[in-house]
């Protein structure tokens, strides 16, 4: 695994509210194995390459709570904290602004509630982005897929699932490319970084993820997370 041949950055976006998790606190702060989810996520990047510059984007009103959790858990892995915006697009813009000192390198944008990304995925994504400009982690569909037309009660038709992929994070890009792409005006199409860069005119390259790299969104996901951690011990 080659981790030292170019500079790496990570923008970890952690703006969830916990509503779908049915939790009283933001989902990035929920504990798994006794530690907030976000700490597990940051540690994955530090374990892969201790020289990565990590920017964590949080809602402004949640920053103090995060700092308190870091003190409580003795969490001292280096990371810069930045206040997010009203949308994910604006939050990534704020994360990029925090890297004002950097001119070159590869930046990964990652969900703060994907704590099971592994070193192999990170290496594949960083290396592909370094070579090609972009690298988006994705997996094949397991289930059958149908296209629905006509709204509720409309017709449905089977489609070839091999033509589709489920997109995960990290999504990695050469830093200058992502900066320029995020200078575009925000539109509803921009649901992730790949859509922003694609709209800018750059080809999106996919790298293989894995099914364990889940985004913790619902209470059932926390059960899976605890099971994954037990298996890793």
Tell me what you see in this structure:
With 233 residues, the chain is of the alpha/beta class. The chain has a single domain (8-232), classed as Spore Coat Polysaccharide Biosynthesis Protein SpsA, Chain A (Alpha-Beta Complex), CATH 3.90.550. 33% of the residues lie in helices and 24% in strands. It is built from 7 helices and 11 strands. The strands form 3 sheets. It has a 7-stranded mixed beta sheet, sandwiched between helices. Strands 2-3 form a two-stranded antiparallel ribbon. Helix 5 crosses helix 6 (193-200). The longest helix has 14 residues, at 119-132. The protein is globular, with a radius of gyration of 18 Å. The protein starts with 7 loop residues before the first strand and ends with a helix. The mean pLDDT is 91. Catalyzes the formation of 4-diphosphocytidyl-2-C-methyl-D-erythritol from CTP and 2-C-methyl-D-erythritol 4-phosphate (MEP).
């Amino acid at each position: 695994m080659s981790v030292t041949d170019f500079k790496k950055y990570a923008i970890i976006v952690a703006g969830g509210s916990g509503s779908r998790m049915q939790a009283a606190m933001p989902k990035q702060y929920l504990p798994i194995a006794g530690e907030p989810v976000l700490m597990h996520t940051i540690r994955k990047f530090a374990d892969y390459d201790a020289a990565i510059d990590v920017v964590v984007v949080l809602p402004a009103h949640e920053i103090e709570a995060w700092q308190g959790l870091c003190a409580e858990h003795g969490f001292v892995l280096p990371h810069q904290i930045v206040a997010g915006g009203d949308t994910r697009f604006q939050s990534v813009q704020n994360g990029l602004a925090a890297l004002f000192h950097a001119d070159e390198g590869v930046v990964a944008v990652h969900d703060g509630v994907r704590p099971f990304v592994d070193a192999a995925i990170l290496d594949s994504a960083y290396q592909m982005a370094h070579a090609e400009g972009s690298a988006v982690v994705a997996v094949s569909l397991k289930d059958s897929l149908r296209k629905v037309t006509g709204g509720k009660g409309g017709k449905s038709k089977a489609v070839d699932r091999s033509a589709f992929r489920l997109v995960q994070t990290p999504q990695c890009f050469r830093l200058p490319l992502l900066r320029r792409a995020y200078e575009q005006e925000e539109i509803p199409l921009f649901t992730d970084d790949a859509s922003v860069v694609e709209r800018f005119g750059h080809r999106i390259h996919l790298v293989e993820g894995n099914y364990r790299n889940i985004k913790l969104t619902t209470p059932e996901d926390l059960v899976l997370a605890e099971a994954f951690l037990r298996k890793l011990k």
